[in-house]
């Protein structure tokens, strides 16, 4: 067995529902400080794993750089936009999966935060 560490190029992604509902992508509370909240879903993704966010006009990037990159996103975009082709297993011995059941319970027009941590 090879003792070298495998390096994953891609992202660890989390969908967060802020404790205080967002008023939209221009909510004045979304400045340098990002609101805390509850994680509704999380997964690992390959290099193209953020393309679903970049392709949506309704998404607003609040912070870039990958440590983390943060987006304000309507819940409907999370439910309909995630490209499952880029979802990876979080651990090598597990099967790739993505549970969006907690996101389904959120009204589709409610704004959520998506954090994406660079794994390169």
Write the SSE topology.
Elements: E1 11-18, E2 37-45, H1 51-54, E3 60-63, E4 69-74, H2 75-81, E5 87-88, H3 101-104, E6 111-118
Antiparallel strand pairs: 1-2, 1-6, 2-5, 3-4, 4-6
Summarize the structure.
By secondary structure, the chain is α+β, with helices and mostly antiparallel strands. It has helices at 51-54, 75-81, 101-104; strands at residues 11-18, 37-45, 60-63, 69-74, 87-88, 111-118.
Question: How would you describe the overall organization of this protein?
Answer:
This protein is of the alpha+beta class. It has one domain (11-118). It contains three helices and six strands. Strands 3-4-6-1-2-5 form a six-stranded antiparallel sheet. Strand 3 (60-63) and strand 4 form a beta hairpin. Residues 1-6 have low confidence and may be disordered.
